[in-house]
Design goal:
Strand 4, helix 3 and strand 5 form a beta-alpha-beta unit. Helix 3 runs parallel beside helix 5. The chain has an eight-stranded mixed barrel, surrounded by four helices. Strands 10, 11, 12, 14 and 16 form a five-stranded antiparallel beta sheet that branches. It has two domains: 207 residues, TIM Barrel (Alpha-Beta Barrel); 137 residues, no CATH class. It is built from seven helices and 21 strands. By secondary structure, the protein is of the alpha/beta class. The chain is elongated.
Length: 360
C-alpha cells in the first residue's frame, strides 16, 4: 500500500511558507473551507492559493453544525459555493466533518442526537456534494465509528480516519495519525495525514472535481551533476549512478545539478560556516543560480526534486556523499528526516570528496 504524506489546516495556522512545507516531503493539504451555515474559514483563500502555488495536491473539508438533515444539505451547498472557483484544481475529496461539537450544537437546538441523525447528516452532505460532480468523503474518529455512526450506510464514501494509535483500525483512504506533528514552514503543531490512495489519479479517472483524465508519462528521469574540487577544478558531468562526481582526496567546493524532467532545488553547507542560498539552475558560468557553492570546502548537500504533474507516483532525489578519503554515508532522499536520514547528505565538520545522485 502506497503512503503519501499530507497535512490538514484551518484558521489556526496563520503563517505558512508553502515552499518549505513542500520541501519537507508534504504532497497534499486538506483545508477547511468553512463550517455551519455558510461561514467561510478566514484562512481558506490564503491556504488554497499558497498550496496550489507550491504545486501541492488539495482537498477540503466542511465542519458540520446541522440541526436537521436538510441543514446538512444546505451546508453542502454553501461549501460548493466557496470551492467552485477551484474546480479543476482540487484533486482530493470534499469531506464532511461531523464531530462532538456537531452533537453539542444539535442537542442545543433540541435534537435527539443518535446514530440515525448523525449518519443521515453525513450522507445528506455527501449526496449533495456528489450531485455537483465532486468526490465526497467523510472524516471520523474511532469512537464515532465504533459507537455513534451506522458505518454500513457510509461504506460508499471514502473515510478519512483520525486514528493516532497506529493502524489504521478501519479501512480508509486517508488517515490523520497525529495532531502534534511538525512541518517546516509552519510554526507549532500541525495535523499530519497519510493518503493510501493516489487521489489525483483516482479523481481524474472518475471525472470528479472538474478534473480531466490524463495519461501520466512514466520512464527514467536523468539526473546530471558535476562538482568542483579544491585541487582539480570542475570535474566532468556524471549521469545518474553511472559513476560518481569528484575525486578521492579532493575536497568538493561546489555542485551543479539538473534533471531531464521536473526540477531540483538544492544548496550546500560550508564547512565551519552555514547553508548557502538555494539554487535551481545548472550553469558553471553563473555563480548566482547556476551551481551551489562559493569556492570553499563543503560538508553537506541538500537536494529536493519537484515532481511534475504528468509523472506519478511522486519521485524523490536519492543522493549520497563520502567523507574525504572514506566510504559513502547512507543514502538521503529529498529532505526527509527519519531513520538514518537527517535532511541532507554529509556531516557538519567533515569535508566530502565524492557525490552521487539519481531520481527514484
Amino acid at each position: 500500500m502506497s503512503e503519501i504524506k499530507g497535512i490538514d489546516l484551518s484558521t489556526w495556522q496563520k503563517e505558512v511558507d508553502w515552499q518549505e512545507v513542500k520541501s519537507d516531503g508534504v504532497h497534499f493539504a486538506i483545508l477547511r473551507a468553512g463550517f455551519g451555515n455558510g461561514t467561510r474559514d478566514e484562512m481558506f483563500e490564503s491556504h488554497i492559493k499558497g498550496a496550489l502555488g507550491a504545486g501541492l495536491g488539495v482537498g477540503v473539508y466542511w465542519f458540520l453544525y446541522p440541526a436537521s438533515v436538510e441543514d446538512a444539505r444546505r451546508e453542502a451547498r454553501e461549501c460548493l459555493k466557496i470551492i467552485e472557483p477551484y474546480k479543476g484544481k482540487i484533486n482530493y475529496p470534499v469531506y464532511a466533518d461531523y464531530e462532538y461539537d456537531s452533537d453539542r450544537y444539535a442537542q442545543e437546538q433540541g435534537v435527539a442526537v443518535n446514530k440515525v441523525f448523525r449518519t443521515g447528516c453525513i450522507t445528506a452532505f455527501c449526496e449533495e456534494i456528489e450531485k455537483s460532480g465532486w468526490y465526497a468523503g467523510y472524516y471520523s474518529n474511532l469512537d464515532y465509528l465504533r459507537n455513534k455512526l451506522d458505518t454500513d450506510r457510509l461504506k460508499r464514501y471514502d473515510l478519512w480516519l483520525a486514528d493516532y494509535y497506529g493502524g489504521p483500525e478501519y479501512p480508509c483512504g486517508m488517515q490523520q495519525f497525529t495532531d502534534a506533528g511538525r512541518v517546516r514552514g509552519i510554526d507549532g503543531d500541525v495535523d499530519l495525514d497519510i493518503a493510501y490512495y493516489d487521489y489525483p489519479t483516482r479523481l481524474a479517472e472518475k471525472g470528479c472535481n472538474g478534473l480531466k483524465t490524463s495519461s501520466p508519462v512514466q520512464g527514467e528521469i536523468l539526473a546530471e551533476y558535476r562538482v568542483r574540487g579544491k585541487k582539480g577544478g570542475w570535474y566532468p558531468p556524471v549521469r545518474n549512478l553511472s559513476d560518481y562526481a569528484g575525486a578521492v582526496g579532493d575536497a568538493i567546493t561546489d555542485i551543479a545539478v539538473k534533471v531531464s524532467r521536473g526540477s531540483v532545488r538544492y544548496r550546500v553547507h560550508i564547512q565551519g560556516g552555514g547553508w548557502l542560498p538555494y539554487v535551481t539552475g545548472y550553469d558553471i558560468g553563473n555563480a548566482a543560480n547556476g551551481y551551489a557553492g562559493n569556492g570553499q570546502a563543503i560538508d553537506a548537500v541538500e537536494i529536493y526534486y519537484e515532481t511534475p504533474d504528468d509523472i506519478r507516483p511522486y519521485r524523490k532525489a536519492k543522493y549520497r556523499v563520502s567523507p574525504l578519503g572514506g566510504g559513502y554515508w547512507p543514502w538521503q532522499y529529498d529532505r526527509e528526516t527519519n531513520g538514518s536520514q537527517d535532511g541532507y547528505a554529509g556531516m557538519f565538520g567533515r569535508q566530502i570528496d565524492r557525490f552521487q545522485l539519481t531520481i527514484t
